[in-house]
Design brief:
alpha+beta; elongated
């Protein structure tokens, strides 16, 4: 994940919103490689939200994951793509709350390179390009049931 929004000093961002870009498949089908994300820094967080956070073992790396539950003083986070390599709490445990930077509010997908720019393609892109990223409130219950 790459950060494009203006971040402030170590204590947090100076502005409430920023843009980040997804790299990798860990959040498919919710998010795809190349998606641009509208991140709401300092937003209240609840289980099921998709969030941008610092990787606990490599703090200069930002990752995007779904918040499952508060556990042992930190957030248990998982990728939505269970078949992708585990770069989430299964590998590094709970994430301290101060490492969770913000909640993802929306995603934006550009027109894929090489696609023709016909009226139909552009209209279908306009309908699907910007979507809210919704919380999955049932995730915590499903996670505990396993």
């Amino acid at each position: 994940m790459t950060e494009q929004g203006p971040l402030g000093h170590e204590r947090g961002p100076r502005v409430p919103f920023g843009i980040a870009e997804v790299t990798g498949p860990s959040m498919v089908p919710t998010l795809h490689h190349g998606d641009q994300l509208l991140v709401h820094y300092g937003a209240p967080l609840r289980p099921g939200d998709v969030a941008v956070l610092r990787h606990p073992l490599q703090q200069d790396l930002l990752i995007v994951k779904r918040l499952v539950e508060l556990r042992d003083g930190g957030w248990w986070v998982l990728g939505d793509n269970r078949s992708a390599e585990a770069v989430d709490s299964r590998a590094f445990g709970p994430v301290p709350p101060d490492m969770v930077l913000g909640r993802v509010r929306a995603r934006y997908r550009g027109i894929r390179p090489g696609r023709q720019r016909s009226v139909g393609v552009v209209l279908s892109w306009l309908v699907s390009a910007v979507r809210p990223v919704l919380a999955d409130r049932s995730l915590s219950r499903r996670f505990r049931a396993r």
